[in-house]
What we know:
By secondary structure, chain A is mainly α.
Amino acid sequence: MIDRLRRILRVARWETARAGGGVDRRTLLAALALLSVAGVVLGGGLAAGVVGIDVDRDVYRVGVDPGSPYADAVEAEPSLTPVSADRATLGETADLVVLDAERGGADREVAVIASDTRKGEAAAAEFRAAVEAHNERLMATEENATAAFPVTVSLRYASRTTPLDDGATLGGADGGGGGGGSSGGSDGDEATGDGSGEGGDTGDTGGTGTRDSTGTGDSAGQEDSGLAVPSIGGGAFGAGTVGTPGAIAPPFPFASLLLAFAFLVPMNFLIQAYGSSVLDERTNRRGEPLLVTPLSPAEIVAGKTLPYVAAAVLVTAAIAVAVGGGVLSVVAVLPIAATFLAATFVGAMFARSFKELTFVTVGVSVFLTTYAFVPAIFTNVTPVALVSPLTLVVFDLQDEAVSLGEALFSTTPMALGAALLYGLGIGVYREEDLFTQKPVARKFLDALAVRLSAVEPDSLGAIASRDRLRPLASVALLTACTIPFVFVAELLAVAVLFALPVTVSIPVLLVVIAFIEELAKSVHLYAGFERGVFARTDRVAVAVGLASGAGFFLAEKATAVVQAVGLTELYVGRAAFGSVAGVEGLPVGVLVALLFAPLLLHGVATTVAAMGASRGRTRYALALALAALIHAAYNFAVVSVHG
Amino acid sequence: MIEVAGLRKTYGDFAAVVDSSFSVDEGEVFGIVGPNGAGKTTTLKVLAGLVDPTDGDVEVAGFRSDDPEMRRRLGFLPEESPLYEEMTPRSYLRFFADLYDVPGDVADERIAAALDRLELDHRERRLGDMSKGMKRKVAIARSLVNDPDVLVYDEPASGLDPVTTNSVLAFTRELRATGKTVVFSAHNLYHVESVCDRVVVMNEGRIVARGSVDGIRERHGETTYHVYTDVAPSRVDQPTGPLSDVDATTEAVGDRFRTTVPDMDAVEAVREAVAAAGGEVVDIRTREPSLEDVFLDIVGRPMPGRYAGDAAAEGPE
């Protein structure tokens, strides 16, 4: 073990020297200088409070008596600069003057005079908004919030026209929190919340209500935590914010999201260097001598990858420190970095030229950035956001607690996916594949086939022995290994479709999921038949089909983790991942049948696909479509019955 | 030292090597010859553990070819050996020595000795700035950093200038003198003849001949006689003359005529025919078959990429 580690470190040291030597000093110095200048400008700007923050500060001068109740409103609005009403001259030293005089008792006479210019009109509008905001704040301090913000609720009952409950459409899932009251409109009910912040009155996702109740507004977060984030964007949103609906800003964690995005930027540069290094080994057979050393392919790849992982850790940690993130941010970003590197590694293993590698790295960059960033936009809206580990970074930057289950849910699929991608790539890190110029699709099939053991009709005897089952076990294991990718793909489908009307999203989702799963269960079977690992007989096709279905069934149970984070609270989440809710009280026989029905489905559908795979590409495509249809029909049946 | 039994390697439907068996003794220089696509390189890569055989058993230095320990006993020189061009010869060789767990001082000593012997002076120059011959020498030195028992060289002198070629071939002969076992492939037969004790001839994935170079020559080639005369061939080669039953070909060479015959009886027949025509035999020379001729005899087609110096392989006349 120590010897192995030592050899890996030797390769890593050499790779570091190579990577460093690949960039000439002038370029390096220029890049460092550029980064330094950017850092100084940004840092200086932040320190001076001029970068991205309050660019409309002190725009209008307002003459107001310091003793006037309006002085506080003016003082609180950054765009307004109070000047003494006594010294204010309209049009010269002030754009607007507030004349406020007591008439005796509680009566006051107030006159607001703006200069007769466009700036004066704008100042008046800004002053009006400032006073309204000031009043909102005063009302919010009232103990009796209901009295401060009375709400009239008009209910109209309408008969349901669809069997599917679309009341949980996710635009309103954030009903928790103060603003939740307004979210129920999506189901057609004209209901407005009471604004009390006591959970969503539409009754959808209580989990998010809790999340929101901790205060998601950027300004609030900044004030509470002292987080050095620019106060870009609107006001706070959540239970801590009380006000009229018009004062509520969307739950968009702009500043935190922007800072979280900073973690992704260096990955794009890292994979360029990494991909080039891997492909460089393949160019002109340069890496062949390494393959005849005592190092295994895994050790070579580990050694070559280690410097880039170390760079990712260092850069991530540095960014975390710079933006005020903690350990959670680093832990959350590492699976993303690993997936960036793993996908690039596989791409570089499959690419035939640097031109193809460019497409690979751009593809990896765009896809993974989208996958990480887009769900994180909905951090404060829906648990779907936890699909992306970047959501954990946003939580971290907002100083919000994250449970272990949420952290595992968010990071495990990507981490496992990265590991499996490396397994896929290392499978073809051998002379026969490393230096040959095959199309990407053929290399992909090679990479899958290399993980399979030969299955011949003779090896499928009536008596199951360890030797006879081993090839089928390798089929089941490889199928099980696709689960993280299936999971990621299905989560992505949920994330893409969740905002659509349920009548559209659910059918599409069920078909998409059926196709994803059938493809995952059968593509390696097709590779096995195409590469001659499996004999092209019906008997072998049935055997590997059933083995693959069983492997998927067993591994699929791991997705039960989604229950821990509340994803099945969403309708599309239940449709995608199922739920055990509602089965209480059913007879044992029915429960057992429900438990094993998916096994039957996977076995049958995958056998259909395997039969096609054993007969060539066209038959496989047709059989795959048929298997997906069978699977989709099953999904519809389950959703219709089980809801 | 090397045992290969029933080796078969297929790529899909294509059989690169078919039922190949041979053994190599310790301290022997063993040649594998054949045209491009004959299966030489695939065989060598199986020996080096780079390619897994589809079928058959391969043992090198007492280890199966897929045993990592075997790799410690083996030095491999691929046909093409692009190096890491940003490195210097010394740093490149030290890196590989590290991978073989060679202690630093021992590695420095070996590297210096190999580069001295290969007469490579520019040891701190970037490999990217070196000539092809210099890079080849560095690659050869790399194959020696772990002091292997077995060396597998694939076309070690391919594409090099004559001076470097001779240097590489001489170095290979020296390796035999130090007790190393060398398996050496080439499609240039002169290279093989000059260094190998035994050879196998491969064609289309199969071994079609084997043995010592002289043995193969005896079995598959024939000594011929060139009889030079001063009379016109038309007068020598009469239908009813002494050569009417002799397998002879005649061609003009300058102001003489050269008749090629297979044995001494035929030589006598030519002498009689020339005398009858009023001429005389002015010279008789023997010609030993080259490996090129042997190959032509075995596979029915000439070797590609014939080396310009192959004339040197022709036997004394």
